[in-house]
């Protein structure tokens, strides 16, 4: 094994760990949403707003950090970001009211905005195109394992020592990984593609936005993230309210159905995406398009399960997650295929800005608002004058039917990308020679 290969493996291992903590720290608030809501006296709209504020800050800060990624040491940027968000995660456990909790989550969002652009840019320079989807799949395994750990540990810690303790526990591994990031050797930009020139005329943002496939990918991202954040914030409260489970049991189901099963889709999606990419230019996005197409009916049937039908619900939501997670390893790699190496940090930050501002930020808040609306309608239809637990359960149940509809729209946008990606890949190769 060469020194370059050893560095690539070490870097990917550390980046996987950092990405795991990225989603672990991000999801703690969703896993503990119900006890936080009760302690601070919140409604579902306010609960959803926590994720909205987080994602808006994450997206806004991500754009300048994406440009910094293309012009500065990526390993150092990652180390600083991980340190910052880990400390602010611990500070979330010290919040004394709703406003102070929001402020600490804003701090976490600022730190986490450094992870994706720099991490994906590093992978693009460490692994050749034919192995990139599998490397990206390993990096993105941090997402399902981070969600799994967040739900499992938060449910146990929250039920045993209270919700605040879970935020304190999350700080230590992040600080360790921040130190390890400094030992990654920074690879030269674009060397893996053996380009002779990487200079492109005009604004870097305009250069990215001229790529037709990026518009389709951005559209898919905002639809995908709308669903992801809505489900991550509200599935555990849904299980507690509609299926009447305790905090620990509800989080265990979410850990398996939203986290662990996603690892299967990431790995299979990355493997299949690389295989099809050899045969046809649009192979990766086609894998993602069909995966989302099949995931939508799984969610619909899961929501059709009667009260207490948690086994079938878990199986169907797990199947949906396994299919949906193929999106990360295939679509994220497709961005690397159509964007020049010295613009990848910029492209990822623009993509994240759009999908978080227009997708994720709306997902949790709109889901919360719909839940409150349908709960109020259920109360009025029953002739009641006071909100009760079963009205909140019915409201959230009705609101979640928006998820399979948007999955189908996301699939359609990826089929659109499959029609433009070949030409954009050819243009990228031509421009950077």
Automatic annotation (TrEMBL):
Keyword DNA damage in record: no
Localization: Membrane
Keyword Nucleus recorded: no
Pfam family, one: MFS_1
Recorded topology in the membrane: Multi-pass membrane protein
PANTHER family found in the cross-reference section: PROTEIN SPINSTER, SPINSTER
Protein name stated in the entry: Spinster family MFS transporter
Record organism: Steroidobacter flavus
């Amino acid at each position: 094994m060469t020194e370059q290969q050893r560095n690539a493996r070490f870097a990917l291992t550390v980046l996987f760990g950092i990405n795991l903590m990225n989603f672990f720290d991000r999801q703690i608030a969703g896993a503990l949403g119900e006890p936080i809501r009760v302690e601070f006296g919140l409604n579902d709209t306010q609960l959803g707003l926590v994720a909205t504020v987080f994602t808006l800050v994450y997206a806004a800060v991500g754009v300048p950090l994406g440009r910094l990624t293309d012009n500065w040491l990526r390993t150092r940027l990652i180390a600083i970001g991980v340190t910052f968000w880990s400390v602010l995660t611990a500070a979330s456990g010290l919040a004394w009211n709703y406003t102070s909790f929001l402020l600490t989550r804003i701090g976490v969002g600022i730190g986490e905005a450094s992870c994706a652009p720099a991490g994906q840019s590093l992978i693009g320079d460490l692994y050749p195109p034919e192995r990139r989807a599998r490397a990206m799949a390993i990096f993105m395994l941090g997402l399902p394992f981070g969600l799994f750990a967040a739900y499992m540990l938060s449910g146990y810690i929250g039920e045993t020592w209270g919700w605040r303790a879970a935020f304190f526990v999350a700080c230590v591994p992040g600080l360790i990984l921040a130190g390890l990031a400094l030992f990654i050797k920074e690879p030269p930009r674009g060397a893996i593609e053996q380009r002779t020139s990487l200079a492109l005329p005009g604004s870097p943002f305009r250069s990215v936005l001229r790529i037709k496939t990026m518009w389709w990918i951005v559209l898919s991202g905002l639809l995908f993230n709308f669903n992801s954040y809505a489900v991550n914030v509200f599935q555990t409260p849904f299980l507690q309210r509609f299926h009447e489970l305790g905090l620990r049991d509800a989080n265990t189901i979410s850990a398996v159905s939203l986290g662990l099963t996603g690892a299967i889709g990431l790995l299979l999606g990355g493997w299949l995406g690389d295989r099809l990419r050899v045969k046809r230019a649009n192979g990766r996005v086609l894998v993602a398009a069909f995966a989302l197409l099949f995931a939508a009916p799984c969610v619909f049937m899961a929501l059709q399960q009667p009260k207490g039908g948690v086994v079938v619900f878990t199986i169907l939501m797990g199947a949906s997650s396994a299919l949906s997670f193929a999106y990360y390893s295939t679509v994220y790699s497709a961005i690397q295929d159509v964007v020049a190496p010295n613009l990848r940090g910029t492209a990822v930050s623009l993509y994240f800005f759009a999908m978080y501002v227009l997708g994720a930020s709306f997902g949790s808040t709109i889901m919360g608002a719909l839940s409150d609306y349908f709960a109020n309608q259920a109360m009025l239809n029953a002739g009641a004058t006071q909100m009760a637990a079963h009205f909140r359960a019915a409201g959230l149940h009705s609101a979640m039917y928006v998820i399979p509809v948007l999955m189908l729209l996301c699939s359609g946008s990826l089929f659109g990308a499959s029609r433009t990606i070949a030409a954009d890949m050819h243009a990228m190769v031509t421009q950077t020679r």
